[in-house]
Please model this.
Amino acid sequence: MGFWIKTVDPREATGPIKKIYDAAVSRSGKVFNIIRSMSLSHEQVRASMMMYQSCMFQDSGLSRGEREMIAVVVSQANECHY
Model:
């Protein structure tokens, strides 16, 4: 038996979450479910995005390609389709 996470629909977003959604659409053309899953708390979305951007874009010993490869392997291990 599955469960559903309540989310804010992009067509109904207002205030801070609308700004976050608009930025997501600007970056990638849509609001991915990972963002929508946290949409009841714009603070949580912001914190998650800050961590993601830090992991993927700040200087480290890994190339961007290596970081993306790690993300793909972790998603596969977690049986995550995206």
About this structure: The helical segments are 15-28, 33-36, 42-57, 64-77. The mean pLDDT is 90. Residues 42-57 form the longest helix (16 residues).
